[in-house]
Design brief:
The protein is built from one helix and five strands, in the order ββαβββ. The protein is mostly beta strands. The chain has one domain: Rubrerythrin, domain 2, CATH 2.20.28. The radius of gyration is 16 Å and the shape is globular.
Length: 72
Amino acid sequence: MPFYDYRCKDCGETFEVRATIQEKEAGLKSACPKCGSLEVRQLLTTALMLHGGKEISGSGCCGPNSGSGCCG
């Protein structure tokens, strides 16, 4: 189940919400856990995977044919 990062526009609190893709597509409404405000904004999150002990970012720079050397 994916996590979605949010920031409260009223108090600045950053928090995570765990929801199914179906819940998100149906219009997930999240309230700030600190102040209860519904004035929250979803933050852009990136995927991070561990593969063979090396970090691979969600940007796709580390494909087997990339030749970029970004994965060490």
